[in-house]
Amino acid sequence: VQLQASGGGLVQPGGSLRLSCAASGRTFRNYAIGWFRQAPGKEREFVARISRDGGGTYYTDSAVGRFAISRNNAENTVYLQMNSLKPEDAAIYYCAATTVVGIRTQAHDYFYWGQGTLVTVSS
């Protein structure tokens, strides 16, 4: 599966963005999808994950209540709605796919990666 992330941009603190992860291939529904982010000088970190059928979601603590992950398997797309953005949310955001069952928050558990989309949070 090939992934392409989009939707990043410049937003003021407190603002919102919706990221999209578009996938190619007919087997998209076989993959759980995760969002990760990497800020300059920092390691890549887990943000959110959604199960293959969209029925299960999981978030890093800092994203709970502010971010929402969803998917549309008919359109081969996963979304990350980000609200109440903070300067510390600024990073390159990546979507990734895995067939590993269970809640996976480590990058090495994901096999396919998109190219990343830049989110800047600044006034």
Describe this structure in words.
The protein is built from no helices and 11 strands. It has strands at residues 2-6, 9-11, 17-24, 32-38, 45-50, 57-59, 67-72, 77-82, 91-98, 112-113, 117-121. Strands 2, 4, 5, 6, 9, 10 and 11 form a 7-stranded mixed beta sheet that branches. Strands 1-3-8-7 form a 4-stranded antiparallel beta sheet, with no helix packed on it. The model has no long low-confidence stretch (mean pLDDT 96).
How do the strands and helices of this protein lay out in sequence?
Layout: E1 2-6, E2 9-11, E3 17-24, E4 32-38, E5 45-50, E6 57-59, E7 67-72, E8 77-82, E9 91-98, E10 112-113, E11 117-121
Parallel strand pairs: 2-11
Antiparallel strand pairs: 1-3, 3-8, 4-5, 4-9, 5-6, 7-8, 9-10, 9-11
Content-based structural category: mainly beta
Helix count from the secondary structure assignment:
0
H-E order: EEEEEEEEEEE
Q: How many whole angstroms does the radius of gyration measure? A: 13 Å
Low-confidence stretches: none
What characterizes the major β-sheet?
7 strands, mixed
Rough outline:
globular
Strand content: over 45%
**Gap between N and C termini:** 37 Å
List keywords for this structure.
seven-stranded mixed beta sheet, mainly beta, four-stranded antiparallel beta sheet, 123 residues, single chain
